[in-house]
Structures are given as structure tokens and as C-alpha cells.
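Annex B. Sample input.
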Amino acid sequence: MGKHAFLSASSSHRWLECPPSAKLCAEQEDRASPYAQQGTDCHELCAYLVEKSLGKDVTDPTENLTYYDQEMRDCAESYCTYVNEQIEAAKKRCPDPQVLIEQRLDFSRWVENGFGTGDCVIVADEVLQVIDYKHGVGVLVSAEKNPQMMCYALGALELFDGLYDIKEVRMTIFQPRRENVSTCTMAKEELLAWAEEVLKPTAALAYEGKGEFKAGEHCRFCKVKAACRKRAEYNLELARYDFEMPAVLEETEIAAILPKIDELVSWAADIKEYALQQALSGTHYEGFKVVEGRSNRKYSDEAAVISAAESAGYDPYEKKLLGITAMTALMGKKKFEEVLGPFIVKPQGKPALVPDSDKRPALNTAYEDFSENEGGKELWLSLITLQK
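Annex B, continued. Sample output.
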């Protein structure tokens, strides 16, 4: 395999956990996705708005963007506002901070041919800041010890560490569609120690296709996740419970199963999609066949339907209140808050069972509610006894 940058910063969360996956994924063909193109479009818009705000002569890209809409514009403008706030804060520490937009960042000192593109790098005395825009809405991205951001920060240090007195790096994920602004701050020495002790040796293994396969959350965007044997072994561990009814399982057994449920569901869906694509290509799976799926009726010509319905004396339209996103786009954020702000409420979310690592505060359970009252524990235990 020729030397090329298959150890990218964006996939580092995966190959740092599962080094041999890097070479396997590099051998797979890239598949374009509309979600990826939306992200690319918004990154281009973000860069334009920030550079324009900095006084640069740049061309508005909107007419050439595939997925441009008002939501994308709002996201990009909020990103631009945030970046400018960070630039102003940097000026308080340093009269001439450097601001780099869509900057190539080379971290090949630690990773063979390693490089990436930093959405925004702000360099000032004491603090080096890297900001990365995420347009996705499906996965909440945290900056906390995020290897992609740490690789970007290393690349920025390579450029500026000798020019500025940098003591710490500040890495921020800006994800407006999830209302998520996540920042992680590390001492420069801590970042460099991670690069030498973790990043460099693991990248060396990954580049050669060596190391141990490992399954986990990092499999989500792996190109070989559906056919990966290690991932299959990892998920099939649940089979030892024989899928008995939860009532016959001990609490410790349920606790062992819970962390794997989401990954198991995801893995099963990946296997089904992979098998479908293989079957469409001619592979036969014993006991299965490809059939036409169910579909819903739809109008062949909406204009003709409207005309025919109106001619028959019927009103073919329904009228309903615009949703919050559409209403905000109609009025603009400022006017929306002014006119409708008092009427906006956010109902309490449905209870969900999540790992302790989740940053949301815990809700009181029924047991805890009883326990807070005098004699509550005894009452709770008596109720449980009656249920049994």
C-alpha cells in the first residue's frame, strides 16, 4: 500500500482504539452521503462568513451549495458569532493573535503522513485555541479528550509553538443543531505527553495494520463494521443469557447487558443492511430472498390533483401552525424571541436510563422520593413486598 494519509485526525477515535481497522478501511471505497455533503456545504459557508467578518475579500458560496437553506445559514452565523467572540477574548491576552480559517494542520511528527484541516485556529500568548464545527445532529460530540481535536492542536503547535508563549490548548466543538458547545482545556505538556506515549506508538501499529482488533462505540463509522468478526464476537456475548425474560435475571446480569444493548441494536441493523446489499449483488443466504418492500400511495402530479379537487368543489389544503424552526426562519431569531418568546416552553423530557458518564443530572427515582420522607423506606419496602 502506498504511503497516504489514511490515519486521519477525523478517524483517530477509531484507529486509536482499534489500530488494524485503519488499513482495512483504507482498502474500502468511500461512499458519498448527503449528510457528509451537508456538512461540507456548511463548513464552506462558515469559512466564508468568518473570513468576511475579518475583512477579507471572499466570494459568497451560497448559490453553489447543494443543501443551502435558512437553517444552515442560521448555524453558520451562530458559528461566526462564536468565533468572533473568541477572537476578541484572545486580543485581551495578546495584541496580535493569529486567526487561521480552514488551515491545514500537519501532525506527521507523531503520525505517518498525518494531517487534517482545522476549521478555526486562534493563536495568542498563553492559549492556543482550535474550534471545530460539527453540522451533524445524530451524534452529540464532546471535546473532552477528543483525539481529533488533540491531533489538530498538535498540528497547530507545530506551526506556532516557537512564535508564541503557549502554555495551554483549548479545543472546542461547536455543534449548533444539538445546541452543543463543548470545550476541553489541556496543558501543553499534557498534550505532548499524550502524543508521545499514546498517539505515536498506536499510529505506528495502525500504519502497518498491526495491533489488536477491538469492538465498541468507535465502530459506528467504520467501513467494515458489518462484516467485522471481532464486533460480531463482542455482540454475540449477549447470547450467553439466552435472552431470558428480565424477571429471571439478576441485577448484576442486567447491569452487564445494558451497556451493550445500543451497540447490539446498531450491529444488527448494520448486518441486515450489509446482507441486503450483498444479496442484491447476487449473494444467496439460505432461507432468505429479496422481495419488494411495502410502499405508501402518493400523488403522481400534485398540481393536477389540486386542480381536480378544486373543480369538484373541495378545498385540497390543510392549514396548521408552523413549527418552531420554520417560524424562526419566517420571522428571524430576534423578532421570534420578541413576539413569541413568552409562549415557548420546553417540557420535561421522557426518563431515560443512561450510563453514569452522561453529563445530565440524575432524576429522583420513586425509591429516592420515598426515602426522602420520614418512614419512606419502610413504606417503599412494604409496597414491593405486596407486589411480590
